[in-house]
Here is the input.
Amino acid sequence: MVRIPDDVRSVLESGRLAHLVTLNADGSPQVTIVWVGLEGDEIVAGHLGMFHKLKNVQRDSRVALSIELDTLNPIGLTEYLVVNGRARVQEGGGAELLQRLAYVYISPGVKFPPMDKPPSGYVLRITPERFGGVGSWANPIG
Amino acid sequence: MVRIPDDVRSVLESGRLAHLVTLNADGSPQVTIVWVGLEGDEIVAGHLGMFHKLKNVQRDSRVALSIELDTLNPIGLTEYLVVNGRARVQEGGGAELLQRLAYVYISPGVKFPPMDKPPSGYVLRITPERFGGVGSWANPIG
Here is the structure.
């Protein structure tokens, strides 16, 4: 497992949206935007249902995610983080994780999911393999 | 060829960054952030060199791109556009396109690329096949 550097951890915990790429059965890319958080050196995302992206991961674990920042690098390019890694689907825990992430992504104290008894859902757990994009965590070539 | 609806055209011409997904030789996803524009019903991006993403497209034309907005849909989710399509690489025209897009992405009147004689580069031309994400252009299920 790759340790997640501190500058990458900051981005992953900043409440910025992650563009998550999974692979469809025919190998084509599927993209959705998700909330993310950290548990140790895994990136986690919560889901209430067995959505298409989770089925994709169960068949092919290769994923990528990208997060856009509002800072510029020294030559004026927008900084962003790309993580390539392997993901797995954990049954249960999705609703609790969404509640924890909602405090970061919506506001402290918000109730989310906004229902009395949400299904327990699923947690997508991503083990990072490399970091790229534009930023202090990336090679100069990007 | 799919016609690009007006609401999608607005997003693609808004100066927001596009997260572009191409497929590596081993089928894994590669993500970079690019500037995009429209030429008729094609989405275009300019590049000065034969970068990894362009080589990927020459081998496998399947791409996806996603663009994050700062608007919320009626139930409070951030709106975003996802385009799935096929891309091809056109030789030449990259520098001119980057100059045109720089007026949108940086500022009117800026000189870009910031060099006297940039290489002519390449244009990535994406033919959209379907639109998704969260927004007026997407099915309710997203």
Notes: Residues 94-105 of chain A form the longest helix (12 residues). Strands of chain A lie at 18-23, 29-34, 37-39, 42-47, 62-72, 78-91, 122-134. The first strand of chain A starts at residue 18 and ends at 23. The two ends of chain A are 22 Å apart (CA to CA).
